[in-house]
Amino acid sequence: MRLQLCAFFSGLLLAGAAAAADKPLVTVGLVDTFSPEFYINTYVPAVNRLMEKLPEYRFRLVELEEQRIEEDIQRLKPDFLLTSAGHFAALIARFSTHQVVVRMPQGSVSPTQAVGSAVIVSGKSPYQRFSDLKGAKIALTDLNSFEGWLFAAGAMRKKGIDPLKHFAELHQTHYGIPDVATLVSLGIVQAGVLASCEVEKLIRTGAVEPGELRVIEDRSEGKGCARSTDLYPDAVFSSLPWVDAGVLTRVTVALLSMPAGEKGFRWTLASDFRPTFELLRTLRFGPFAPIYTLSAREIWERYSTEIIMGAALLLAVLVHIVLLNVLVRRRTRQLRHALLQTRRLSAETQRTRQRMLEMERSHIVSELSSMFAHEIKQPIMNIALYAGTLKLLLKKKHMLEGEADGFLEKIYSEVERSSEIVDHVRAYAKPHSRVRKSCTLHSLVFGAVKTFQPQHPELKVGKIPEGEVLADPFEIEFILTNFLKNAFSAVKSVKSPRVTLSAAGEGENWCIECEDNGPPIPEEMFARLGTVGQSTKPDGLGFGLAIATGLAEANGGHLEFHRREPQGLRASLVLARHHAKEEPHA
After folding, report:
1. Mind listing the pLDDT tens digit for each residue in 295-317?
2. How many CB atoms lie within 10 A of CB 450?
3. Which among 114, 116, 119 is positioned nearest to 101, based on CA atoms?
4. The whole model's pTM is what?
5. Number of H helices, E strands in the chain
């Protein structure tokens, strides 16, 4: 609100700056500690009065921050200041501020006894004195406001109470909502600080009921508004030493002749600021803040020996700290390097050990596979002979018809497939040349699928384009079969299992993809896909995808794995396209 008003007036003044550029400039500064009501009812009429009575001057309005008044005065060089009496008194020693006029509200005893503070509590509250409020919460508008807090803080200090430690919480409203009176009425805080006469104004306007709020430590003695503190001068309009005498005279006359009107105050002169200085002394504020009286030269003359010895000791300590830090950093770097080397060697040893274990397992499985393939050949041939004998027997008895004949044909088909698998396994155990031939995507995909249908209704075959690849069909079907087995195993625990096998073209390659909606795969397990390792299936050896990876590369392709969102896996076999004019090769 205050910044908006200042910006509004600055805009009005700047609007006519071009037309009045030749007029002398007068700068009026306002210290930011007042309420929005003060801005509207005091600051605005005063500025309007000056602009009306001094049309031959240009006015510039600036706002000074309470925390940095001295810096802002030196930077902005205001001719006049509108401040609280406390800030005016505090600036006298530093800038020789001079009283021009003092604000005197209607009903005030005198210009020097105009405003105070009222510490309020709820009408039903048992609190009677400042000391009763120890450990309570107190609300106030602003810590820098004299009539809103500092007057009350001074009264407490006179009674031996430290206001900053006496209360459990100092709740600042900064003139916002809910205000101090509302916070006390609602019981959010136990006490509040208002300017004198604020309680009476709230009762007149109907904002609070009579008896709803009570002023403690009342010092009014039934004369005027209830208050908890002494009375002090109100806001002071002061001048700085560099202001022109003519301007000072005209501004003084303009404000002193300003009618009270409906604003409830008038500008006058105050003859006694001693109560204000006493308050500053009590608060240790402004010129009474603790200072060191010795100059730098006096300090050197008295304590030069101690200063030199202290500086030498401090220098020695600093040199020691620097050297110690250098040595510590150097040793830390050495230890960090040694630790990194140890970790690297340990990780390398672990990887080497893991590779040796994998090679050993691969060798053992290879030997066992060769032995198994050799031994299983004869039982497979026996199954084929028994199936043939059974077929001849059924045919002789005229019983070979319908489903019996179909089942025997399926037995022959599986026997041939088993025999082919055994031959491939035995071939891998000895040097051999791999024969690749032209194969259609349809034959490869459905060759792998027929093994699982109709046992797996969750399996769906997607679009299979017309296309050919140059590969060993048995090995490609082995890869796809491995894909499907892993997918079926992954979706066992899924509520609505789904496995899809499809193919698509990717530039000069064909990509056969197997997708499932199994559970999410951990990062560590996903990183090991396609390598020899520990299987996650109870009956697995961990070689399936590793073998499939080797077979894919042997057929001029490769495997790819991608995690699906939000769950599932897509395993892809990528093979080069084959055109009819290309000759198959070994």
Report:
1. 576 567 657 888 899 999 999 99
2. 11
3. 114
4. 0.48
5. 17, 18
